[in-house]
Amino acid sequence: MEVAADYSGWVKANPRECNSMIDVDGSIPMDLNGVLYRNGPAVFERDGISKPYYVDGDGMVHSLSFSQGRLHYRSCFVRTKKFIEESNLKKFLYDTWTFKAPADEFDSLQKPKYESQAFISAVYHHGKLFAFDESFTPYELDPETLETITPTKLGVSDVGVSFAAHSKIHTFQNQWIHFGLKHDKEPLVYFTILDGAGKCLNSFCEKLPRAVYVHDFFTTENYIVMSLHPAFSNMKPVLSGRQSFLESLDWRSNEGNLIAVYHKSGCDKPIYVEADTQWWLHAVNGWETSDEELVLSFVGHDSPDHILGENPMYKRVLTGNAQGPYTPGRVRQYRINLKARTIKDEILLDGNYEFPTLHPDRVGCKSQFVFMVKGSVDKPFWNTLVQANLATGSSQEYCFGEGVYCSEPIIAPRQRGIGFGKKEAEGYLMSLIYDGRANKYSVAILQGGHIEDGPIALVNINNEIPLTFHGCWRGLNEVNYQAGSL
Ligand SMILES: [Fe+2]
User: Fold this and answer.
1) For 439-460, what is each residue's pLDDT tens digit?
2) Which end of the chain is flanked by fewer CB atoms within 10 Å, N or C?
């Protein structure tokens, strides 16, 4: 009997912790050797209580280790303070993005109760693996077993330092760059720059000119750039337990974006440039063309109607009644003149895109290719993988069909280092897939540069793998990629 195609098996997945070899059919390339890490939310129900939004889940990290055509799969919950306490008592104790935990006798003493869910991104750097949430302390995990080692402030001595889920590894500068927001009495942003060995090179804090929530940032050779869209947060009702954080965000579409440009030294005053209103979650890339000009690309929406508001589409996915249309995510590019403080904004790709990724050695440098997912604005999630050439506007796509959903694509590059030029898109592109028609979970492997040919391997994984947000590729024996010059 044909199973109705839906995404409930993706957003309500109930994954087990696994550690096993996967049966493969010989289609995995012998020269794909390394580990794909993914992080995403799980555990939406405890003690008969269901959570309302998939951003309320607890982090589970998955690793797919490829070696000579074989595949080993692991999955492990991040043992956060929250996960351990709630698992022990078998009930939800902590508030999350939209969820308020049931009241208990301690509510008057400590409310609201927020702790890291460690569910958004997994980053491998200087031989270590980390799980990040937004504005909480990251957790270090064992990169082989995925067992949780410890919460960590990454060696930064400032106890107030904050880390967002998104960071950037700038290979050629040997830098791992972080930002983190803090909405206390005044809105602050922390910047932390680590070297290739994980040693702190610089950490500084700036007062933000507006109290807004942003999810990602840009880096270039000399600058860190924030695009402060008008998603204003009001922490008073959040801290008093009257509103969730997501409910507190106030989208003021007539206030525009404010681009804030910070020199990495932390010594110069920020440069501010005004831009038209664009909601955005994810940067594509950024680079400098001269001392004066920055080029920044990102996925932008005219409105956050799919995420924010009374009853946005992505909140309704857990109740099964989500439908669009919502405003599409187009690939846009800013050209910012720092001297004149002017901005040129253009649409590079019209469509509905999300989760852009790059060759890892092109972050912060001039790049040509971006990998993304693409979908319809009428329905949640995405069923198409895309490799786009932003220099020419051309793209290759592969659509998995109605009722099949794909996640952030990650490239295992054929070549790392300098001088690969036009080979930037070469390698194997991987995406976790959920087939809602057959209720099957798999990893799809496609050939970079030949995306329209479809998967060269589609390997079933015997676990319910929830929607995952972000991950990374760790090449074989890659402890710390040695930087070179461009
Ligand atoms: Fe993200």
Assistant:
1) 999 999 999 999 999 999 999 9
2) N
How many helices (H) and strands (E) in the chain?
A: 5, 34
Ligand 1 centre from 110 Cα, in Å? 29
Q: Is 393 left (phi over 0), alpha (psi -120 to 50) or beta?
A: left
DSSP-derived secondary structure letter, 199: -
Q: Quote the CA–CA distance of 115 and 94 in Å, as a whole number.
A: 7
Q: Per the structure block, which two tokens stand in for 272?
A: 């501010």
Could you tell me the distance, in angstroms and rounded to a whole number, from the CA of residue 281 to the centre of ligand 1? 6
Residues 6+ apart with CB under 8 A from 381: 7, 10, 317, 375, 405, 467
Q: Report pLDDT digits (tens) over 203-222.
A: 999 999 999 999 999 999 99
CB 402 within 8 A of CB 383: yes
Q: What's the rounded mean pLDDT across residues 327-355?
A: 97
Q: Which of 282, 296, 381, 276 is nearest to 337 (CA)?
A: 296
CA 90–ligand 1 middle distance (angstroms): 29
Backbone angles phi, psi at 265, to 5 degrees: -70, -25
Ligand 1 centroid distance, CA of 111 (Å): 27
164: CA distance to ligand 1 center in Å?
10
User: Please, is 183 exposed, middle or buried when counting C-beta atoms within 10 Å of its C-beta (0-12, 13-18, 19+)?
Assistant: buried
Q: What are the sequence ranges of the domains in the chain?
A: 8-475
Tokens at 54, concatenated: 């998939």
Name the nearest CA neighbour of 271 among 283, 279, 262.
Answer: 262
The CATH topology of domain 8-475 is: Methylamine Dehydrogenase; Chain H (2.130.10)
Cis previous bond, 112, omega within 30 = yes
Q: Is the distance from CB of 217 to CB of 258 less than 8 angstroms?
A: no
pLDDT surpassing 50 at residue 482? no
Q: C-alpha distances in angstroms, 208 versus 244, 387, 423?
A: 22, 35, 40
**Ligand 1 centroid, distance to 355 Cα (angstroms):** 7
164 vs 167: CA distance, rounded Å: 7
Query: 333 C-alpha to center of ligand 1: Å?
Result: 18
Answer for the pair 313, 322: CB distance below 8 angstroms, yes or no.
yes
